[in-house]
Amino acid sequence: MIEKQPLGEKERPPLSQIILYSFGNLGYSLGSFSAINLLVFFYMPPETGESIFPQFIFTGAVFGVLTLLGVLNFGSRIFDAITDPLIAFWSDKSSYRLGKRKTMMLIAAIPFALCSFLVFYPISDNFTGNGYWLGITLFALYLFMTMFTVPNNALISELGHHPADRLRISTAVSLTWALGFVIGNLAYSLPDIFVSAYDLSNVQAFQLVIGIFALISLLCMLTPVIFLNENRYAKQQSNETNWRVSLKMVMQDKNFRIFYLADTIFWFSLNIIQIGIAYFVTLIFELDKSMATTFMMIAFFTSLALYYPIGRLAKRFGKKRIILSSLICFAIAFLILFAVDYVPQWGNVLFYVLALSAAFPIGVMGILPNALIADIIHDSAHAEENALSGMYYAIRNMMTKFGVSFANLVFPSMLLLGNSIENPFGVKMTALVAMGFCLLGWVVLKQFKEPEKVVEL
Description:
2 strands
């Protein structure tokens, strides 16, 4: 039973409101999945001996060691990261009648969903035109994605103004985010069904799937905008400081800086496996690309099954220790991936071992960081902690996007070293690099001090 706060305080959100709010995460998870995880697959597909997609943009080296796709991806994500604190300040300072956060989410939802499709819809018959189109749609996509995710994430702390609710909210949004990720991974297998059933080309079938994802994404993002009673349940304050002061106040939180640095390093590694799964499956394990869906299904459904044990372990040992153990587990998973060629007779077994070993870190990083950030905010020395909640999440988003941006720059470049069954060297090296980053993240997070005002699990 949900208790009411004392007079003058906001009510605690009932479970129904938390569930409705969490649909926004499913929406932006699915809407962003395609651009973040499938762009390299679509524009620089693995060389398996058969043509998956035609060449739409220039895929050779630029500036010696980079690729056009990597540069566009990197530039758009850096732009995305830079806009985070500005949009967070706008959201923190706003006082819209519909809701401090929901109004901006409404403005962003439709163009965000539309752009998630348009990045996969090249409109020109030449590389140059498609390159410009891809750059424009990518920058627009990440602008509107930030306009949705920053206010949406700020609601985690504002709805979770009671300690017992924060993990409940974090778990709910993690579940729906994971569901969006699982649905997104169907993009490796669903197009084959449409090719057979409707006599479509590979490109047409793939674009149809992405279009369906965009529509589902839009409906889910609009769910909290329509049904969440933000004014009744979200505990908010107006931020009267300018954006530079807000940014400085959050960045002065040393403990938070340590956390987001470690979190950034983790997201680099996670994005390597998300971008690279089709390459790992087809070039290292030499399986059909549809097995990428199988891999991610195993990893994510196993991670969902681990959510409750992870929560119990975090209560007993603390969130920091569990996150540290997950980084080691992820490093081992990447080591297994790198070593597959040395034990080819165990390839099929290692495929499933790798999927299962990736489940624990994916589950941990799905559920604990959001709750830990809420702890940091509520443990903050700032009297304006609630007014700055959007900025806290924006800085976290900004830094993780730097990690994702770096992965999007590095991965296509490493494909230049080998992107075929005969020479998968570049693909294998991405696994080794990701393992190194996991170990670096472990070293950084060791310096973090877990807040005293923690979530009651």
